[in-house]
Amino acid sequence: MEKLAARDEHPVIRWLMTEARRRTDASDFLEAFAHELRAAGVDVARITTGVPILHPQIFSFSGLWQFGKGTTERLYRSGPGFAAAMSNSPIRIASTAVSIVA
């Protein structure tokens, strides 16, 4: 129980366990998360998220937050040349690892 109380004292963890859970918009969450990290002293300038999607035309959803620029969203769709672009991408490796674990 002591360990849990110690984790609750960290502002980012407290935020993730409380207010963050009420944020349903991905971009809104990412923007707020970045600001919480910076307020806690983490000198973050960029955060990228990626969520694989089981859909025949859309491979994944991604959010990108950059300091001073805000948040953008991207959908990666299937199409000509996608396999070639992914062959050298670290995303392919991460996506494969997630698929193996799941």
- The average pLDDT is 78
Helix content: 40-55%
Q: Note the gap between the termini.
A: 30 Å
What sort of overall outline do the alpha carbons produce when their principal axes are compared?
elongated
Number of DSSP E strands = 3
Spans of 5+ residues with little confidence (pLDDT < 50)?
97-102
Structural class of the secondary structure composition? alpha+beta
**Strand content bin:** 15-25%
What radius of gyration results from the CA coordinates? 17 Å
The ordered H/E elements are: HHHEEEHH
What is the spatial order of strands in the main beta sheet? 1-2-3
How many domains? 1
Helix tally equals 5
Largest sheet report: 3 strands, antiparallel
Folded structure, characterized:
The chain contains five helices and three strands; from the N terminus they run H-H-H-E-E-E-H-H. It is α+β, with helices and mostly antiparallel strands and 102 residues long. 6% of the residues are buried. Residues 97-102 have low confidence and may be disordered. The protein has one domain. The chain has helices spanning 2-8, 11-17, 26-39, 82-87, 90-101; strands at residues 46-52, 58-66, 70-77. Strand 1 and strand 2 form a beta hairpin. The protein has a three-stranded antiparallel beta sheet with strand order 1-2-3. The chain starts with a helix and ends with a helix.
